[in-house]
Each structure stands twice: as C-alpha cells, then as structure tokens.
Amino acid sequence: MFRNSKKWIVGCLLFAACMTAPYTGRSQLILVSEAEEAAIGLDAYKQVLTEQPRSTDSARAAVVEKVGRRIATVANRADFKWEFALLKSKDVNAFCLPGGKVAFYEGIMPICKDENGVAVVMGHEIGHAIARHGGERVTQAALAEAGIAAASEWLSNKAPENRGEVAAAIGLGVQLGVLLPFSREHETEADHIGLILMAKAGFDPREAPKFWERMQAASGAKAHPEFLSTHPADGTRIAQLNSWMPEAMMYYEAAQKGETFTPGAKARGAN
Ligand SMILES: [Zn+2]
Q: From ligand 1's centre to the CA of 244, what distance in Å?
C-alpha cells in the first residue's frame, strides 16, 4: 500500500489528520482512515482464523467472551464489530485488531489465572486498537519508507556495489531510530488505557501489576513478542501502573456503585 509512494505520502500529508489518543491525550499523526484500518483488521483476523484452530475449551472461551464484552462496552466504540476468539495454541499471546477483532491464545490463560487477569490483557489489547496504534505504525512505516526512497535516489548516483550495503544500513537505522521507540511508547500507552478500561468495566485494576509479575515469572514460556521484548522492562511497567492507579481507582470505585467516572479536564479525549 505504501510502496513506491512518495507522491502518495506528499498528497496525504496535505490532508494529515492530527489525532489525540484517548485517555492519555497524546498527539498522533495518522494518515490512514479508520475504515481502511478496520478492513485490514478484518482481513488479518480471517487469515488467523484460517491458520489457527479455535480452542475446544469452551469454559475458557466463555470467560474471554464475557470479559471482552464488558470491556468493549466501556470502550465506547459502537462502530466496532467486536468478536472474541480463543485459539488453540500454546503461544503466550493475544491481540485486538482495528475494528474490534480480538483473539486470545490458550497459552496466556494460565498466566491470566482468572477474569481479572483476562481483563488486564483484554484492556491492554483493546487499548492498542482504540488508540489506533496500527494506523499510527503504518503511517510511521510509510514515512520511513519515503525517507528511504529519497536516500535510494541519492544512492543511484553511487557505485552499484555499495548500494545494497548502504541501503541496508539506512533500513536498520530507520528501524531502530524511528519505529522501535514508538512501539515502546505504544506499549506504555496501551498499559495506561488498559488499566482504565478494566477499572471502568468493574475489574480491579490492582490486579494488573500482579498479572505482569506472573508474566515475568513465566517468561520461559513460548511468548510472542507482544508479550516480550517490545514491552517495557517489568520493573518500569509495574512502577508506571502504580503511578496510574489513583486515576484507575476512581473509575473502579464509580463502577462498583454502578456509576461512570468522568474526569473534567481529560474528558475530551476520552470518547
Ligand atoms: Zn502491547
């Protein structure tokens, strides 16, 4: 989609939408439409379901569905076509694609332990989706690629034998310098949004640091990168979760009384 697309990039930048992430208020540059993101999400979801059989553990699948519905309700995305699947795989993994297609892998369920643990993962994954991290990542990749295209033009005047080497170095630099730090930021933001979503849905946010401690203890398991290297170091993550806890507890305590907590100053980005 964003291959050989310098003109496409320039055209899109003219109509660049500067978005605001929900709850955190972080500014984002996203050059794909939500409809396009949802279409890509749906295709990817279908693909995964063709390749990966569903779990036969109907009790656990029901927990994923139940927790998912509760968190989806407070995520305020009536336009999402929510679906929740438990897949038969020992991988320690879960995802929520743009448009609301969620999958948990059986391997993460023992670490989740109970509904609260499922809510931690569910909130985090739905957090990635409602903050449009996929669209933001695609945008970053497209911009990085346009940079490479410009560099390639310059390289075409150089000796052909050096071209591949230099292009590889630029590619590596782009990946380390632009894409990787952004994805750590996304992980932190998904933690923050996830904590609020679980609390808003009536799950105890104080269970989140405990879940990540269990995840750390199980780090020998066959974990997908989503639950390994791209995540902040666990000590940092737990400190961050605790720093957001007073905010999350306001949502949780309101939910316990059947009310919805609405923060005055931050309410604008919260839909
Ligand atoms: Zn994540």
A: 17
